[in-house]
Design goal:
Helix content is 17%, strand content 46%. The chain contains 3 helices and 9 strands. The protein has 169 residues and is an alpha+beta fold. A hairpin with a 4-residue loop joins strand 5 and strand 6.
Length: 169
């Protein structure tokens, strides 16, 4: 189980492009089923995807450590709509599939409870099936999607933004 510590934003680990990349092997498709959005994975020819850092400088930074080594990072903060918004969640390549991502998501959920916020909100893309699967396992619900969000960055983009929500009780 990783130890998660709050770290000043400017002292947080630097994640290399390699640590931010992952192999896309399937694309998430969304369908409506009895007023709920449901996900299905469709296989694609594998390719590597890298996300650029996107957390604003004023976000909280929480770092997961395993045996003294930085294993993952969560950048989040209260959002205008009363949720704790996850701007960035990254797990170092060497630490994936070891529960670090789930620990960081649970940390965000606990942080939302401590701050008396409505819950946790975040966004990922339909190219990141492992993240979508993680959020589902952690009790998040898919609240919506946007087919045009990334077109300003890349006009030919077919990526779909998926918006996830977890409500604190």
């Amino acid at each position: 189980m990783p130890e998660i510590l709050s770290i000043p934003h400017e002292q947080a680990p630097y994640w290399t492009a390699a640590d931010r990349s992952f192999l896309v092997e399937s694309i998430v498709t969304v369908r409506m089923d009895q007023d709920l959005l449901r996900l299905e994975a469709a296989p694609v020819a594998p390719y590597v995807k890298t996300y650029p850092p996107d957390a604003p400088a004023d976000t909280e930074c929480h770092v997961a450590f395993i045996e003294g080594k930085a294993a993952g990072e969560l950048r989040c903060g209260p959002h205008w709509n009363g949720y704790l918004y996850v701007h960035d969640l990254v797990v170092g390549t060497a630490f994936r599939r070891q529960g670090v991502g789930a620990a960081l998501v649970r940390h965000a959920m606990e942080r939302a409870r401590r701050l008396a916020l409505a819950g946790v909100a975040l966004e990922t893309q339909n190219t990141n099936w492992p993240a979508c699967h993680l959020y589902e396992r952690c009790g998040f619900q898919l609240g919506g999607f946007d087919r045009h969000l990334y077109r300003a960055l890349e006009p030919a983009s077919t990526e779909i933004a998926l918006f996830w929500y977890w409500a604190s009780q």
